[in-house]
Amino acid sequence: MTAHRKPTTSEVALDVAFAVAAWVRGTMHEAVNQLLNRPADLPLPSIRTALRRAHRLTQQEVAEAIGVHRIQVVRWEKGQAEPRNPHRRAYAHLLAGLAEQHPEVLSGTSTP
User: Fold this and answer.
1) Residue 112 neighbours by CB under 8 Å, 6+ apart
2) What does the DSSP 8-state code read for residue 61?
3) 91 and 62 share one domain
């Protein structure tokens, strides 16, 4: 019969380190999966501009409807900033409606 030896402190520490590393990898993996499963609620900035123009809206009209200054719409369309809630939800709703009315913009067949 073989006697079991007591693990050393460094062996225990190594086991704990491996367990923590596996947990972190699992947590990071889950966080990445959540990001991948989250719908992209806003199109690319160039598409935002194209949708607005297809409906013949000005940046000022969009800004007033959403409740922001025109410069914010300019920044969103240039990709210099991203809207935050509640403006993001309103902007996403507007863009989704414009995309439904102007599918040619998303298919790349629109004319400027």
Assistant:
1) 53
2) H
3) yes
